[in-house]
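for the recovery benchmark. tokens below, seq after
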């Protein structure tokens, strides 16, 4: 057995990490599905990347053991303060069927062990004619070489087309329309909805989606895509393995494209969808070659999925317009909010301007500056579209200009980032709209006596279905769901008397 150090996983030593969004989905799959997935080395390597540091350490400690290790031996590696974290990490691995569930000995899933060893050591990764990490196409001097800048520009254009449509559709604007597959995915995800057959409009969940980093946004859509796989009669293992394969490919690998000959029929059918999301680039739809973009190669790592204007050598130009990271909080914010509700946005990005237009009345536009006002009408318009006051405030905080943050840090008092008066007023505008709430139900009145009224009312309160009551008028209002029980109770009482 190799010598190992005790796991000192104490709460003070190990920062809390949020589990990746894909892990709960994988844990919900059957053991047979996961075992099939673990037959691919690229899938095993990708899942290893998604796990937390403690889970990865446990896997690496067990990976090179030829036989199972006693549970007591593994527990001896853990200091007392780390036992809870160790148990939680072990529970995650058991739930993913990475570690076999046993109270006596611990061992990795043999399929995963073999595949992960191949992935780490660079062993043979082929199963028949299919390569787990993709098959590079042979060089052809007739094909024009594709550079990383071209791939980045393509990915950014496709991704911003989706986000720009979300914030502009239904706002008297004519944004570029994504494919029908993308629109259906946005609806199924609850990010957009059509009210009474009208044009698709962004929902409250959609606006919250804009507050997330691009990596989380992408996985949010891909998770919905995975849920739809069975409806489309697609093999879930093939879908997952293709996404994991893309995440392990090299971006702009010596300007060599990958061939589709090694892909299964399910994976070939995915190419069109992934083109629409900006994950892969193809010269044309019928091409037998493809190249992964940065969106795809960063699926299972922490690198930025899109180029930023602050990264040397990765500036992207689309239609002669310099485009920044767009809808999410980058390394620097761009919004200044004053106490008089005036908003200054230092940006030339049409997408960022479109997001602000959801809740700000625009006044002036300059080459690199947009000026607007937070008004009662603009905020109420956003509220009517399902956007909440807290979401508006969260967006302004997430994209606050560095100068606003600097003023807060330099101030001796604990001043909030945004003016308190503005925050309170936004919430008051929301309360104005929420003063009345409608509910379907039944009004019970005309009781023969006060005793009858109080008796029935007490029964309704036990059921928890009373929405309103008036002792002076001997009446109360109950929910639609509780009507059958209340009616039966009244009829039974009337029959008894």
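predicted aa per position
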């Amino acid at each position: 057995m190799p010598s190992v150090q005790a796991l000192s996983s104490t709460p003070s030593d190990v920062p809390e990490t949020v589990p990746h969004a894909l892990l709960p989905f994988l844990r919900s799959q059957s053991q047979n599905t996961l075992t099939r997935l673990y037959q691919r080395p690229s899938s095993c390597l990708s899942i290893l990347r998604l796990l937390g540091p403690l889970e990865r350490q446990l896997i690496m400690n067990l990976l090179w053991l030829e036989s199972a290790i006693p549970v007591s031996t593994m527990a001896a590696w853990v200091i007392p303060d780390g036992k809870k974290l160790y148990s939680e990490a072990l529970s995650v691995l058991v739930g993913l069927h990475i570690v076999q569930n046993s109270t006596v000995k611990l061992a990795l899933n043999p399929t995963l062990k073999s595949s992960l060893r191949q992935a780490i050591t660079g062993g043979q990764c082929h199963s028949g004619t299919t390569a787990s990490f993709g098959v590079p196409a042979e060089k052809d001097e007739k094909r024009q070489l594709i550079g990383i800048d071209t791939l980045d520009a393509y990915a950014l254009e496709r991704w911003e087309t989706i986000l720009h449509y979300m914030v502009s559709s239904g706002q008297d604007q004519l944004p570029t329309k994504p494919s029908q597959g993308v629109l259906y995915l946005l609806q199924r995800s609850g990010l957009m909805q059509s009210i009474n057959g009208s044009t698709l409009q962004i929902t409250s969940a959609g606006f919250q989606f804009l507050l997330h980093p691009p990596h989380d946004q992408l996985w949010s859509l891909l998770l919905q895509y995975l849920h739809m796989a069975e409806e489309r009669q697609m093999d879930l293992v093939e879908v997952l393995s293709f996404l994991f394969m893309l995440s392990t490919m090299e971006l702009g690998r010596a300007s060599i494209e990958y061939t589709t000959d090694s892909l299964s029929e399910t994976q070939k059918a995915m190419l069109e969808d992934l083109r629409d999301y900006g994950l892969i680039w193809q010269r044309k739809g019928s091409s037998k070659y493809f190249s992964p973009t940065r969106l795809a190669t960063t699926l299972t790592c922490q690198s930025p999925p899109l180029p930023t204007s602050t990264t040397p050598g990765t500036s992207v130009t689309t239609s002669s317009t310099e485009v920044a990271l767009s809808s999410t909080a980058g390394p620097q914010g761009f919004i200044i909010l004053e106490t008089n509700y005036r908003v200054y946005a230092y940006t030339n990005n049409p997408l960022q301007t479109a997001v602000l237009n959801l809740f700000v009345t625009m006044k002036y536009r300059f080459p690199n500056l947009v000026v607007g006002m937070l008004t009662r009408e603009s905020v109420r318009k956003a509220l009517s579209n399902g956007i909440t006051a807290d979401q508006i405030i969260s967006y302004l905080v997430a994209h606050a200009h560095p100068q606003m943050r600097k003023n807060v840090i330099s101030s001796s008092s604990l001043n909030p980032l945004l003016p308190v008066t503005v925050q309170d007023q936004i919430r008051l505008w929301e309360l104005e709209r929420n003063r009345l709430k409608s509910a379907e139900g039944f009004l019970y009145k005309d009781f023969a006596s006060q005793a009858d009224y109080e008796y029935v009312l007490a029964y309704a309160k036990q059921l928890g279905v009373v929405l309103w009551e008036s002792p002076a008028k001997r009446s109360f209002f109950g929910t639609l769901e509780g009507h059958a029980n209340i009616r039966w109770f009244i009829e039974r009482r009337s029959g008894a008397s």
